[in-house]
Amino acid sequence: MAYPGYGGGFGNFSIQVPEIQMGQPVPETGPAVLLDEYCGFPAFSDAYSSAGDCVYTYFSAVAGQDGELDAEELQRCLTQSGISGTYSPFSLETCRIMIAMLDRDYTGKLGFNEFKELWAALNAWKQNFMTVDQDGSGTVEHHELRQAIGLMGYRLRPQTITTIVKRYSKNGRIFFDDYVACCVKLRALTDFFRKRDHLQQGSVNFMYDDFLQGTMAI
Question: Which residues does the UniProt record annotate as the domain EF-hand (predicted)?
C-alpha cells in the first residue's frame, strides 16, 4: 500500500481498550486489537449494560438525551475521565477536530461507538507520546516527533516533519494536546486522501470543493 499510517499499530488504532479507574493515568498498552473489532459495540441506549465498562460510564455521565457528545461535552468527558493523566486537559479546538475525524454520520457529535474508537486512539497516542519523550519533559521535540510519526507507520519526508513541528510546537517543543491534534489531523487527512485514491498509488485528483470539504472540517 502506498499510504503512511496504515501499517503501524498507532496509526490505525490497533490497541486494546484498558479498564482504568476514574482520574487515574492510562496504563501502558500495546498493539493488539484492530479497529474493526471496536465497530461492533452496541449504540448508546438505556438498555446498554454498563457493568464493568468504564468507557461507557464516562460517556453516559456527560452525553445528553440524544446519546451523543458535542465538542464541549467531549472536552468535559475526557477531562473527568483523567485520560490525559499528568498532561493538561484537551482544548476545545482539539475536541472539535476529534469529532470531525470520527463523525461518520455528520451530526457534529460523537455517539458511543465513535467515542469508543476515539478512546482507543487516545490511549495509543498517549503511549506513543510517553515512549518517545525519553527525557520525561512532558513534551516532544523535532527528533522525538519524527520517531513518534515513524512508530505510527507514517513515512513522511523531512521537510514535512519540519512543517508539522513549526505548526504544532511552542519554542520547538510540542505539548501533549498539540501532539494529539497533530495525530488527529494526520489520520483524518490520510483517510480523506486514501478514500479517493481508488488505485492505491499515492496519487489522486479531486475537485476544489471536495478538497475544501475534506480539509476545512479538520
Answer: 120-155
Q: What is the pLDDT of residues 127-155, one digit of tens each?
A: 999 999 989 999 999 999 999 999 998 98
Domain regions of the chain by residue span: 50-197+205-217
> pLDDT tens, 152-208?
989 899 999 999 999 999 999 999 999 999 999 999 999 999 999 988 888 889 899
11's CB contacts (< 8 A; 6+ apart) are 4, 5, 152, 153, 154, 186, 187, 190
Segment holding 175, helix H or strand E: strand 174-175
How many other β-carbons are positioned within 10 Å of the β-carbon of residue 98?
Answer: 27
How many angstroms separate the Cα of 186 from the Cα of each of 27, 97, 155? 24, 11, 11
Q: Yes or no: is domain 50-197+205-217 CATH 3.40.1190.10?
A: no
Tallying the residues shown for the chain, one arrives at 218
